[in-house]
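Hi, here's the filled form for the chain we discussed.

Project: internal
Contact: R.S.
Residues: 435
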Amino acid sequence: MKVEAMFKKITVLMALLVAPVVAYFSRMGEIGFCMLHNYMARQGLILGANTLTGLIPTIYESLDVVSREMVGMIPAVSRNSSAERAALNQVISVPITPAVALADNTPAVTAPNTGDQTITSVNMTISKSKHAPVRWNGEEQRGLINAGTYMGILQNQFTQAFRSLVNQMEVDLFTTTYQNASRAYGTPGTAPFGTAGDLSDIANTRRILDDNGAPQTDLQLVLGNAGIANLRGKQTVLFKVNEAGTDELLRQGIIGRLEGQDIHQSAAIVPVTKGTGASYTTNTTGYAVGATQITLITGSGTVLAGDTVTFAGDSNKYVVTAGVSAPGTITIAAPGLLQAIPASATAMTVGNTATPNLSFSKSAVQLITRSPQMPIGPNGQAMDMAEDVIQVTDPVSGIVFDIAMYKQYLQLVYHVRLAWGCQAIKSNHIAILQG
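And the returned structure, exactly as it came back:
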């Protein structure tokens, strides 16, 4: 009995001594495993719950390259955050407030029955949900890791992914803006600002906005490469430091603000081919100032959205928002005709192919962006097959991109993704500078 009791005491003592040692080495093993796991994850050698964390510097370096390219439309337009909860292709109505009609002050027993307004709206949608995929298999990855080039190539792939999404947004914004402009100024085929010391191009485009009652603040001018080149090369008043008051254009090529408009450059601004419409005339109804729907009778060919048209006796260049492919009714942008069309067949001419540089009020064009919606799982959290998802913010535009990583058989794929929609909602506050 004494031996048995002594054995039990020894067993208990050993347990007390060994347990802390085992716990210590177990904990150290866990720490070592975590350190090794995180290191390998950062090198792209394994997958894990925080796989993308190690890639954040690479991702932001890629984004930094894209945000410094010729992206002019995105920072120039207004972000509509209230619509971010909308589903893909769900219609979002943006209210448009009309001008207030004045009434005479006439003494009476009761207040006059005035003040009613019809609030119209413009519909827009989150129309696109896209991802740019970057996929690697193990053998490809191993070879490039051994060569020391894997992370550099991966960074370039992320750069291209961000570029593809940003370029598509730029094109969409450019398209909706020029197709909904009120009127145009300039000479098709001739880049603006081509005459040294002459800034009448920007002045006359700004006049369209002024005549239409556009706000005097937050005005934007987004130019294509040819227009920017002429500003930098021929308008000496802008790069003479004693006249411009700054050396930014001379030293850095920066044109921050000119005649009350913030200047941007966009690679999306390119020549737009006009429709084939020819020999069109209006019907004999006649149209008053402000009319936006014009019926065409004789003539043939297409009149496209974004085409500029003029009517005999009226030098204003109106922008078509809804065209025709045969005699029918076209729609021109608000505020409509500035000069009445007489009650007789009046010739209409479609303007030549041109590059539509864009002048507008920031609030006239809306952009919605959000992450693509993942389904809600049984735990109430958004989820799909992604092993890890992070979000990164473009420091220039403020756009938040989703980065997701999916495990596959002997390979993995990264998705850079975004959902967006855009719409020009106020034609009165948009003008085209043709080039």
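Let me know if anything looks off before we file it.
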